[in-house]
Write a structure and sequence with these properties.
Layout (H helix, E strand, L loop, with lengths): L25 H19 L5 H16 L8 H13 L4 H15 L6 H11 L1 H10 L7 H18 L1 H7 L7 H7 L13 H20 L3 H4 L3 H23 L11 H17 L3
Helix pairs in contact: 1-2, 1-3, 1-4, 2-3, 2-4, 4-5, 4-6, 5-7, 6-7, 7-10, 7-12, 9-10, 10-12, 12-13
Length: 277
Amino acid sequence: MFSMLSEKSKIKENFPVGLIVSPSLKPLVYAYYCAARVADDVADAKNVSNKIKIQRLSEISAAFINHKEPSAYTEVSKLGQIFAKENLDSSLYLDLLEAFKRDVLAKPVRIWEELIDYCRYSAAPVGRFMMAIHNENYSTYIPAQNLCIILQLLDDLGDIKEDLSLLKRCYIPEDMLAEYGVKASDLGLSYTKPETALMLKEFLSKIRAMHKDVQHLPRLITNFRLRFEVCIILSLTNSMINKYNKVDILQYKPRLSYYDWTKSLVYGLLKSLFFKY
């Protein structure tokens, strides 16, 4: 659902969040990742009824809120304890659980605004979380949320066939499908129809427009490590948008190359130093 770096599994995702945070904050970031992964695994579990999934997600929510009580979800209780100690807003985790519940119910997305609203629960909390633990000004929250929404949308675009075939989920708004005369099942084909290609181009153009609107975020961030990381992610997302624009998404899922990473690291460092992103 969102991309962070798992120190335990050493799995590097396309857009790892928390990659270069201060060592003192890494345990908190990792605890957040682990607790979110627990809920994500519940929502995506195979051969489990939706009723049981919703029940388990409710139990996870209770484990976070009532973190002092014994629970089978120890990683979630641990995060609840940390949140209480650090006086962090509980919505930074509970909003994620709301998104996982929506995933389980898999209700069709009717319009673009509904998709963005879903992302406000599934991805935006990560942006607010990163700003909050660095004590950044509230002015950073909205662009940070929107940057994480962009990451979510790019991941949805890359996983479009897998989500449809394995999870029976389609994140393309129904009105967009109707406008281009595309059926959700067309997204699972082994080839891309011309009308599907046009629709996906529009979807990508919306992401690109959002990307332009968050370019000012580094200027608002006071913590150098966080500003550096945001600059890297902005550069990586730009590279990924360009890659998606050049390929048949249903035929090929682009991946960031070592060159992309090297370029983003260099550009990110220079732009974070000189505030000229």
